Amino acid sequence: MKLAIGICGASGAILGLKFVSKIIDNDNLDIFLVISNNAKNTLKHENNIDFDDQNTSNPIIYNLYKNKQKIKILDNSNLAECISSGSFGIDAMAIIPCSINSLAKITCGISDTLITRSAHVCLKEKKKLLIAPREMPLDSISLQNMLTLSKEGAIIAPPIIGYYSNSDSLESMENFLIGRWLDVLGIKNYIYKRWS
Ligand SMILES: Cc1cc2nc3c(=O)[nH]c(=O)nc-3n(C[C@H](O)[C@H](O)[C@H](O)COP(=O)(O)O)c2cc1C
């Protein structure tokens, strides 16, 4: 499966990186990761992470760069990257988290970044597009945008936790979210406690 992952500048950009870290060893996936400059900014503010520092001691970033062969990290400003074309044959895309800004652009068909362009490719090619918008509270414009995209076939899956997983730590709550996103994409996982 060719899976594109976009990380936007909404709060919790770290969740997008943790999502990638959970599938890094999945041999069935070809992963293409795009991270917006605003996401890098958010990572700096919220997690004190410099995404571009390849010598970082942060284990998540370190692991990403260590697996460079497997995970292609693409430049969000380069619209000539492979995933920008429908003919490349991307199977699915997840945008985690998705900013209200990129959500609005995708809804309007604006494709001026690799993330928004690839999302548009998924819509036009009728491929799976998972969008995890992060904002609270939500205005009517954003709610309308989500409805429009949902009607277009996108899966709107915000980072909303479920208490039925009996999460007792931030990590287990995050695993619950990541596991649910993987479920939606059809990627087998055992990282959270399911309802039984
Ligand atoms: C620390 C920080 C937190 C932010 N949190 C959010 C958020 O939760 N949701 C959101 O839509 N935008 C948030 N923003 C604003 C976005 O970064 C901004 O709208 C930006 O244009 C998004 O760009 P992108 O869509 O290219 O990533 C935040 C910005 C900063 C600096």
Explained architecture:
- The two termini are 29 Å apart.
- Helix 1 (13-23) packs across helix 3, helix 4 (100-108) packs across helix 5 and helix 4 packs across helix 6.
- 38% of the residues are buried.
- This protein has helices at 13-23, 37-47, 59-66, 100-108, 114-124, 140-151, 170-185; strands at residues 2-7, 30-35, 71-74, 92-98, 128-133, 155-156.
- The chain is an alpha/beta fold and 196 residues long.
- It has a 6-stranded parallel sheet with strand order 3-2-1-4-5-6, with helices on both faces.
- It has 7 helices and 6 strands, in the order E-H-E-H-H-E-E-H-H-E-H-E-H.
- Helix content is 40%, strand content 16%.
- The radius of gyration is 16 Å and the shape is globular.
- Helix 1 (13-23) links the parallel strand 1 (2-7) and strand 2.
- The chain has a single domain (2-163), classed as Flavin prenyltransferase-like (Rossmann fold), CATH 3.40.50.
Strand order of the largest sheet: 3-2-1-4-5-6
Largest sheet: 6 strands, parallel
Summed up, the domain count is 1
Task: Give the distance, in angstroms, between the N- and C-terminal Cα atoms.
Answer: 29 Å
The residue ranges in which pLDDT falls below 50 over 5 or more consecutive positions are none
Element order: H for helix, E for strand: EHEHHEEHHEHEH
Number of strands: 6
Would you identify the CATH H-level superfamily?
Flavin prenyltransferase-like
CATH top level label: Alpha Beta
Proportion in β-strands: 15-25%
Which fold name corresponds to the CATH topology?
A: Rossmann fold
Shape: globular
